[in-house]
Amino acid sequence: MYRSLITWLTLHVVRAGRALLYSSVYISLVAMTEVAVATVLLSLPLTFAPVVVGLVTFAVYTGDRLADVDTDEVSNPRQAAFVRRHGDVLYLLTAAAYALAVTLSILGGPVALAITLLPGVFWVLYASEWIPDVGLHVDRLKQVLVVNSGVVALAWAVTLTFLPLAFADAPVTPTVGVVFAYFFLRSFVDTELPNVRDVAADRATDVATLPVAVGVRRTRHVLYGVDVGTLALVGYATAAGIVHPALSVALAVGLLYSVGITSFLGRFEDEALLAKLPECEYVFVGVALVPYVVGG
User: Fold this and answer.
1) Residues 42, 175: contact at Cβ < 8 Å?
2) Do 145 and 209 touch, CB atoms closer than 8 A?
């Protein structure tokens, strides 16, 4: 009896874990953590911003997985199978999540509403064939090297930085610029690193990423450079008195984690797992911020 119970529990835990992973719920939770980190960095009160960003993240990433299910069968067959099996439910949840996010954003005013709509707009520009025929062999921004990851990074940097600011009706300060640059650089890394797993699928669909264009080893070096640039930004902000030293230490903890994950590029067999690990950086940052928040 006990063995049957354990087997039943194990089966359902595994299924729940796969659902969280493949439906993008996990990355939505990470996004909420990012907004909480931004809120602390900007010394803002807690608002609905983390909930709104979590809902938008779920809607955008799940929508992207629904749109790219055919190509994902090459790079991530288990996720593609899950998306196909639960496609109807995921479509409904995607629409409901964005609708709820938009509804909650109204509480933050017109700026919060505009920012909430921004990731969806950027996703359409990123993934759809909207570029006019001007003689270039490009149908989507997703096919343009560096620009593709830059668009994703810009959308999330704006959302993560300015949505909590809009909800709190707070002014733009030099700290805001630092936080925006930090999230832009981090989001760029978080976007390019998983592309190592998708090299075969990206080549087949003419999607230009760093691993496709320059190889895994050089991609690793480029991302090292972005991490070092982020560390330099944090160091400058600390020296200039823009960011509290305790906050800088927490950000440095996350950067060390990022460098560690990047070092495994091309050296770790389970590329699917490696693609999921970059976002966990913000969990480490959040934990490192706890003493500051509690003591503050």
Assistant:
1) yes
2) yes
How far is it, in rounded angstroms, from Cα 196 to Cα 271? 7
Dihedral sign, Cα of residue 133, residue 137, residue 142, residue 145: negative
Query: Which H/E stretch holds residue 79?
Result: helix 77-85
Residue type, 47: T
pLDDT tens digits for range 101-140: 999 999 999 999 999 988 777 766 655 554 444 444 445 5
Place of tokens 């025929």: 133
Place of tokens 């320059």: 214
Distance CA 36, CA 38 (A): 5
The H or E element spanning position 195 is: none
Whole-angstrom distance, CA of residue 237 vs CA of residue 234: 5
How many Å apart are CA 23 and CA 93, to the nearest integer? 10
